[in-house]
Specification:
Blueprint lengths: L1 E9 L2 E7 L3 E5 L6 H14 L5 H8 L2 H4 L8 E7 L2 E7 L17 E5 L4 E7 L14 E4 L3 H5 L18 H11 L1 H14 L3 E5 L2 E14 L2 E14 L2 E4 L2 E5 L5 H14 L6 E4 L8 H17 L4 E6 L2 H4 L7 E6 L5 E5 L6 H4 L5 H8 L3 H5 L7
Parallel strand pairs: 3-15, 3-16, 8-14, 14-15
Antiparallel strand pairs: 1-2, 1-4, 4-5, 5-7, 6-7, 9-12, 10-11, 12-13, 16-17
Length: about 375
C-alpha cells in the first residue's frame, strides 16, 4: 500500500504532500490537480519495477511539457509504502548540496525529447525496495464510452482490457466461457449497482484492423498498411422487460460500472486502482452501492488500494472523513491539497454533518490559507 506521496514541479503540483488510505477519494474543482495526482501515482508504480520502467518513459512523454510552468528545479515524484521509499527525479543534476547522498547515483536513464536528452534518476531515500519487490500492477482507468461499446477481437491467450475500455467485450466473452464463476461474480456485482441488468450475451461481430504488410517488388522491400476484418465479440444486455439490448443503447453509467468491475474482478487484477470520475453518470443511490461494492472488494483483496476522483457530495456521504482529500488552485496556478478533517471547524460539525454535506458547506478555498506557508516553496 502507498502511504504517502510527494510531488515537486510535476504539472500543477508544485509542492504537494499527500497521505493516502486504502480507499481515498480526491475532490475539488475541475483542473485543480486531481487527475495529475492519479497520473503521478501511476508513474511511481511503473518506476518501482525494472521490467516496466520503459513504460514510465513512454507515459511521461516530454518532461518539458509536464514540468510546473516557470520553475527550473528538479521534478520529483516520491512515495513511501510498506516496501520502503521510492522516487523519480527528472533533470536533477548532482550538486554540492547533495553531499554524499549516493541514492542520487542509483540509476540514470536517457530520455530523448527531440532536442537531446534529460536525466531520469531513481531515488531511494530509505534504501532500495525490500527484496526487490514492487508496488504491484496498477491501472489508471479513464474509461471512454466509445471504446467500451466497440466490438473487440483478441489474439492473446487471455484477453485484457485497456485503461480506456477497449477490449471489454473480448474479456467478458473469454470469462463467460473459461472462467464462469468469476464471470458470474461480475454479473452479480453489476446487478448490485444496476438492478435492471438481468444477463449479458456476446454475439460474434466483425472487427476491422489496420495492419502493416511487407511486400517485395524488384528486390526492393516496401511496407504498406491494409485493413483486415476479424471476427470478435460485441455485447448485448438482457434488461428488465427488454431482452437483447445492443451495447450502444445501454446507459453510460451501466457501462462505466461494468468496465470498472471487469478490471477489478477479471484476469490480471491490479493492486493499485486509480479511477478517474468514480461517480460518472451514476444516480446518487448507485454511487452509494458502488462504494459499498468497492469496500467489499478491498476486504477480499488485502493488497488492493483504490484512489479515485469525484465531484459528488452524495458519494462522499458514503465515505469516512479521513478518506477524503481536497484540491484547489492558488492564485499562481499551483495546487493546494489537504484532508477534509483538517478543516478548522471539522470537530464542531462532524457529529451533525456527513462528509458530503460538510464539503458542500466549506468548499476548498480554506486550503489556500491553511497551506499559505507552502505557497512559495
Amino acid at each position: 500500500m502507498i502511504d504517502k506521496v510527494v510531488f515537486q514541479n510535476f504539472k500543477a503540483l508544485r509542492d504537494v504532500s499527500l497521505d493516502l488510505e486504502r480507499f481515498t477519494v480526491l475532490v475539488g474543482p475541475n483542473a485543480s490537480g486531481k487527475t495529475s495526482i492519479l497520473q503521478g501515482l501511476d508513474h511511481l508504480v511503473l518506476a518501482s519495477s525494472e521490467q516496466r520502467r520503459t513504460k514510465l518513459i513512454d507515459a511521461m512523454g516530454n518532461p518539458g511539457r509536464i514540468a510546473t510552468s516557470g520553475t527550473y528545479g528538479r521534478m520529483l515524484l516520491q512515495c513511501s509504502s510498506h516496501l520502503g521509499e521510492l522516487g523519480v527525479a527528472i533533470n536533477a543534476p548532482r550538486s554540492e548540496s547533495d553531499g554524499n547522498d549516493q541514492s542520487w547515483l542509483s540509476e540514470m536513464i536517457d530520455l530523448p525529447d527531440g532536442g537531446g536528452s534529460c536525466r531520469v534518476q531513481m531515488v531511494y531515500p530509505g534504501g532500495h525496495f525490500r527484496d526487490n519487490q514492487t508496488l504491484g500492477p496498477a491501472v489508471l482507468l479513464r474509461l471512454d464510452v466509445k471504446r467500451l461499446v466497440a466490438p473487440s477481437y483478441s489474439e492473446e491467450p487471455v484477453p485484457h482490457m485497456e485503461p480506456d475500455g477497449e477490449g471489454l467485450a473480448s474479456v467478458l466473452a473469454y470469462m463467460a466461457s473459461n472462467e464462469p464463476d468469476d464471470y458470474q461474480a461480475i454479473l452479480e456485482a453489476l446487478r448490485g449497482v444496476i438492478p435492471s441488468v438481468e444477463a449479458m450475451r456476446f454475439p460474434r461481430a466483425a472487427v476491422t484492423r489496420t495492419v502493416s504488410e511487407i511486400i517485395e517488388v524488384e528486390e526492393k522491400t516496401f511496407t504498406h498498411r491494409v485493413d483486415r476484418e476479424y471476427w470478435g465479440n460485441s455485447i448485448e444486455f438482457d434488461m428488465q422487460g427488454a431482452p437483447r439490448i445492443p451495447v450502444h443503447l445501454v446507459s453510460e453509467g451501466t457501462l462505466f460500472v461494468l468496465g470498472v468491475l471487469t478490471v477489478l474482478m477479471g484476469p490480471g487484477r491490479p493492486q493499485v486502482v486509480l479511477l478517474d470520475d468514480i461517480d460518472r453518470a451514476l444516480h446518487p443511490k448507485a454511487q452509494g452501492d458502488l462504494v459499498a461494492l468497492l469496500r467489499k472488494l478491498l476486504d477480499q483483496n488485502p493488497e488492493m488500494q483504490i484512489v479515485a476522483t469525484s465531484h459528488s457530495p452524495y458519494l462522499l456521504d458514503h465515505l469516512q472523513p479521513e478518506e477524503v482529500r481536497l484540491t484547489t488552485l492558488r492564485d499562481d496556478g499551483s495546487v493546494a491539497c489537504g484532508r477534509l478533517d483538517e478543516h478548522p471547524e471539522f470537530d464542531k460539525w462532524k457529529e451533525s454533518m456527513r462528509p458530503g454535506e460538510f464539503w458542500s458547506l466549506v468548499g476548498e478555498d480554506w486550503l489556500v490559507e491553511a497551506n499559505a506557508g507552502e505557497a512559495g516553496s
